[in-house]
Amino acid sequence: MAVSPRSALAVRHVAFEDAGTLDDLLSARGYKLEYCDAGVDPIDAARLLAPDILIVLGGPIGVYETREYPFLEQEIESLRVRSAADRPTLGVCLGAQMIAAALGARVAPGPAKEIGYAPLDLTDAGSSSCLASLEGVPVLHWHGDNLDLPEGCARLASTRACPTQAFARGPRMLGLQFHIETRSHSFEKWLIGHAVELSQAGIDPCALRAQAAKNGAGMEAAGAVALGAWLDGALA
Q1: Is 13 a catalytic residue?
Q2: Residue 119 falls within a domain, yes or no?
Q3: Range of the domain at 175
Q4: Number of folded domains that form the chain
Q5: Is 93 a known active-site residue?
Q6: Is residue 1 part of a domain?
Q7: Using CA atoms, how far apart are residues 106 and 181, in angstroms rounded to an integer?
Q8: What is the CATH number of the domain that holds 181?
Q9: What is the pLDDT, as a whole number, of residue 4?
Q10: pTM as predicted
C-alpha cells in the first residue's frame, strides 16, 4: 500500500516569491508542497493548522496595512493559533513579520530599505543554530519593514539597519527577514516583479543583476544547508 506524502503548505503573496529551494528540500524528505494564494484562496485557522509544515512567504505589503488588505487580519490570527500549537512554521520576510505580529511584536517601517546582497551578523545563538552555514555569506535582502524581537524568541542575526534579521522560538518556529530560498536562475523574476519599487528607490536593476551573478549560487547552496538543518530540527 502506498504511503501518502506528508503535507507542507506555502502561503504565497506574489507569484514570483515562491518557495524556491524549499520545494526540493521538502520533496527529499517526503513532503508534498502545495500553495495557498493569500487574498485569493480562503485562509483560516483550520487550514493553516492542518499541514505538517507551514511556510509563509514574502510580499510587497506591510502587516499593518489591514484596511487596504483585509485578509491580513485572518492570516495573522491563523498564525497565532498555529504558534500556540507549536507546529513547524517558517516565515520569510513578510511571513516573518506576520509571525512576529502573531506573537505580539511590533512591526513598522525601518530606517531604510535593504535591497541587495549583503552578509548578516550572526549572534552567538545564530552561530550555533541552523543558520551557521550563512556565516560571511551575502544573502538577498528585500524589505523595508523591521520587527521587534517577539517575547520568548531568540535573536539569530542582525544588520545595521535591521536589528532582528532572524529569530527562532524553539526548534519549530523560524522567522527570516531575508531570502535564502531564492533560486539563482529565477532572480530575473524579482527584478521584473519589483520594477516599480526599484525605480522609486533609485536602485539600478543592472547592479542587482550583477550582485546576483556574483553571489546567487553561493547563497543558494548555503541557504539550502540552513533550511535543510531547520527542517530536520523542526521535524525531529
Answers
A1: no
A2: yes
A3: 6-234
A4: 1
A5: yes
A6: no
A7: 25
A8: 3.40.50.880
A9: 53
A10: 0.96
